[in-house]
Amino acid sequence: MDIYLIWLGFVLTAICEGVPCEVIPKDPYVEHGSSIKVMFKKTCNTWKLNSHSKNFWTLENKRIDESLYESNSTFSILTISNITLPKVTVRFHSYVQEYEQIMSGTIIRTYQRPRNISCVTFMSPCDFVCHWKHDIQPTEKINYKVIRQSQEGPRETCSSNHTSCSFKSCPIFSYQNYITVQAESTFWKINSYTLELDPWNTVKIDPPKHVRVVALRACLKVDWERPGGQMFLSQVIHCQVRYAQHVMYMSMGERAATATMTTAEVEECTNHTTSVRCSLDKALWSNWSRPVTVLSDLNVRGWQLNLWRKIDPPDNRGTRGVHLMWKGISPACNAIDGYKLTWREAEMVVSSSVDRASITVDQWACRVTLAAFRGNTTFPEDSVYLPAIGESLYQVTAPQTTAKDGVIYVSWAVPPARPVNGYMIDWTADGETYNWLRIQDTDLKLTGLLNFTPYTITVTPLYDTNTGLGTVLTICSKEKAPNYIWTINVSDHEKSAQVIWTTVPQSPCTGAIVNYTVFYKTRTQPEMSVTVNSGIQKVTLVSLQSDTEYSVHVMASAVTGKTNSSVSHFKTKRYGRTFVITTGFICGVSFLVVLVTGLYCVIQWKRILRKMVPNPGLSSLAFWSSQEYQTPYNNPLETETICENIYPCEVDTKTDNASGPTHPEDEDTLDGEETGSRQMDRRSSGFGSSSSCDSQSVEESIRLIPAPAELPSRSQPDKGLNPVESVSSQDSPLDSLDSQLPERCPINPYRGQTPVESPVPPAGHEEELGRSLLETRSG
Predict the structure, then answer these.
(1) pTM value?
(2) Tens digits of per-residue pLDDT, 653-704?
(3) What is the CA radius of gyration of the chain?
(4) Which of 457, 502, 565, 725 lies at a CB distance of 3.0 to 4.6 Å from 427, suitable for a disulfide?
């Protein structure tokens, strides 16, 4: 809020006073390297300046030393010296209520004078052209004017929009000329420093014409005509002759129409290009003349041939192939007609353009001679020795080869027991094209080789009359980094991944792989790596994040360099194999448990349904043992009666309805005693435990028992069950119990029955009987 009020006050004050706050001069242009004073008017905003605590200036946002400030009652003045930048920004700052505020500013731009003026006078056609340099902004549009003036001649001008201008006329040669370049833009105007020059020193004559070159033995003869014709006969002309990377000088005197020069010794049978240029005294050099190329002569008699051979292994008959090669005379020299090869009685002639030939020799030693000829004249020759098969020869010892930066270094020791005249070293990269060199030293540096290429090098000692046995060495000129890693396969899991890679078969000059490094990372985490030795080409990455995308690449490292594969991407699984197996196992076990439990419950429920309605036809009677009656368990308590511990098994009379009608006199009794009958059923089926002795009279209990004739017989399933028959007329043990029962205990109607085994009903009869009983109870 305070800042807002300050700015509002500043704007209102400025409007009221009508004086803008600005640095003057506004956006000036000054000459490069000059000085300027800028001022800020204090009375533009009295309220702000009265409330400030401190004012200061900045140049390109850097505070200027206060020693450069000046101040009076009206202005705050800053002096800036030696401005060399193309553009600088100056601002005036003030503190208002402890807040720094930029009051105003200005941009100072610089401009420069045209410099490095040079002028050239061309004689045909006559023209005077001046050039200069001027450092300006690319967007600036500058108009130039070149002023030429002599002591006696008129003042001439030339206008241009570029840094050159042509007058289309020659200057006055008799007087000094004064040249000034004026540059002008929309905002500034400046003149260059005046250049004083002699018009003759600006003349650039035409290059010499009709230059002729003749090849002499070991030198060249050059002649040309005087440049300019008759125009400069009264002046000395200086000339230069350029040939074979050499330059020779000579001068042409006054009125000399031609010039001739013989060069120094040049290389034989070589193409030499020659050209000439000339100038007046202290003037500018002309352009070079049109080049002339000639072939220098060859002194054939002084030429030395260089012959060598490579011998193939002999066949079964001892015949060997010999490949001859030589360094002869260039066919372009046209110095010879051809070469002649001779060995023993054999002879072969080849043309001058051939530098190799193949011959066949037997198992014996011989010498092959090479000679160049022209007509009937034979020039100096060279020969080479072919040893016999099995001939004992010496060879160099302790050969060594090393390679560094494409250069092969070969060294060896002198063969023992015999002096050596020299050594022949030959090397090849393809087995067909050979280079060879004869030296006297025991070491050699081979250069100009193909990179990453294996070379076969042979070192052979040379003797007076024969040659020794060659020692063969093989080395690469330079070893490179391992070959490209061809493919990367990733098998991803939940928290791990297996990376497998294959490499391109290594070339002979590929550095041996030391190890492999597998780099992997996510989009947000730093890169991690795993390193294995060169014999392993797979890695298992562990401790990865599940359901995460990774990038992976493999780097093969060797002493000679490193090679990286392309980047592959993979994503780990959300759930791993262990989780899926465990979850499946738990789900399977749970399903089996639920299934088994359900089946068990269904089976038990069916059993319970079957037990809810007992089958009276499956009941039986048994004797009550007198010994068991005497046991303490069977002794009733004082508060209990004997009948409370006896649970009689009775048959509900309503089941008789299934086999036939009941007696009419029993229907009322059954209806009135339905509750007691159900109690008896519960006791017989195990669902009840209380006795009905106290609630029923002896007569009522007896009425619940059907007559013997009404019980269905097993032998008559269609007519119902037969009554229980007595198997013995003897007294039952229950009869002896009657005398011991209290008088209040009702008489059990089963006491008058003889225990027999119940008849077994036919299959399915139990279910029908159970359903009949359920219907009877529900009714």
Answers:
(1) 0.47
(2) 443 443 444 443 444 443 444 444 444 444 444 434 443 444 444 444 434 4
(3) 66
(4) 457
